[in-house]
Design a protein that fits this description.
296 residues; alpha/beta; eight-stranded mixed beta sheet; 12 helices; 8 strands; 51% helix; elongated; binds guanosine-5'-triphosphate; binds magnesium ion
């Protein structure tokens, strides 16, 4: 598992690999910290998070600590930063409803299929709702995933009211006694304000039909855009109730350091990462594993 994650993160690892030489060098602490800061910024960790980490390392270590001691300090610092998040609760009990939100093309539909696959593997009865009625091919795309995974998909005509799709889906979900309903949403409508209203409406209908639901609203962010993912995330924070982040496309990018900046700057846990286009390419995010995959 760790080996696999390492391989998937290989492009980001290349950036961090320079650190290996650094940690084996005979450099003084201040030189190591300078080089480290530079590498982290190159890896898209972000300036303010990088500064925060360097400062914390300075406090945590002594002036004449060896580079290898600094490496341990960095690992501890990163693990602490990545796991110090609210909401890292155990998975919610079935039946539950998960809503996927995020900018267009970020990977919502694909990530949802991955979650469906995972739940299936746990023996759960899954249903998916195509509440993206804005993009012409969205219904078909989810329909194809449904066929491939053998998961029923509640669909609607192009341009239909997404909240009514959600309504129909929740009714079927209850009637068929499913364990998990995954709700896909559009990445873009006419304006951002429209999108936020649409999401609120979907959420309201779900909550009205199933008290306590949606148990999870995952904000899907594309790691390949690095620091810009933060800008997108802030837009979506205007929509209330997001419970966690699903960070996609870590397999193809050297900007995996963005995980660290995003986790630091948003008061939200990173719950999953996407490492490929297939339904199995899902990793439940765990700080220690991620740091190990990056740094060893
Ligand atoms: N390499 C890689 N590609 C991914 C990953 N997740 C999604 N993709 C690809 O990203 C593209 C967009 O994915 P979608 O799931 O359609 O994104 P979306 O957010 O639903 O897009 P809209 O419905 O247009 O808003 C597709 O080509 C996916 O195969 C990932 O973890 N790794
Ligand atoms: Mg989609």
């Amino acid at each position: 598992m760790l080996g696999n994650l390492r391989e998937k993160l290989s492009r980001t690892r290349q950036v961090f690999k320079k650190l290996e030489d650094l940690f084996q060098s005979g450099k003084r602490r201040e030189e190591v910290l300078d080089d480290l800061a530079e590498a982290m910024i190159l890896a898209d960790v972000g300036v303010s998070t990088t500064e925060k980490i360097i400062e914390a390392m300075r406090e945590r270590t002594n002036k004449d600590d060896s580079p290898s001691a600094l490496k341990e300090a960095l690992k501890e610092e990163l693990s602490a930063l990545l796991s110090r998040k609210p909401g890292t609760s155990p998975p919610s009990p079935a039946p539950s409803i998960i809503m996927m939100v995020g900018t267009n093309g970020g990977g919502k539909t694909t990530s949802m299929a991955k979650l469906a696959r995972k739940a299936q593997g746990e023996g759960k009865k899954v249903m998916m709702a195509a509440a993206d009625t804005f993009r012409a091919a969205a219904q078909e795309q989810l329909g194809l995933w449904g066929k491939r995974l053998d998961v029923p998909v509640i669909r609607a005509p192009y341009g239909a009211d997404p909240a009514s799709v959600a309504f129909d889906a929740v009714r079927s979900f209850k009637a068929q006694g499913c364990d998990l309903l995954l709700v896909d949403t559009a990445g873009r409508v006419h304006t951002n304000a429209n999108l936020m209203n649409e999401l609120e409406k979907i959420k309201r209908i779900i909550a009205r039909e199933v008290p306590g639901a949606p148990q999870e609203i995952l904000l899907v962010l594309d790691a390949t855009i690095g620091q810009n993912a933060l800008v997108q995330a802030r837009e979506f924070l205007r929509f209330s109730g997001i419970t966690g982040i699903f960070l996609t496309k870590l397999d193809g990018t050297a900007k995996g350091g963005a995980v660290i900046g995003i986790s630091d700057e948003l008061e939200l846990p990173i719950k999953y990462i996407g490492v490929g286009e297939g339904e199995e390419d899902l990793v439940e995010f765990e700080a220690g594993n991620f740091v190990d995959a990056l740094l060893s």
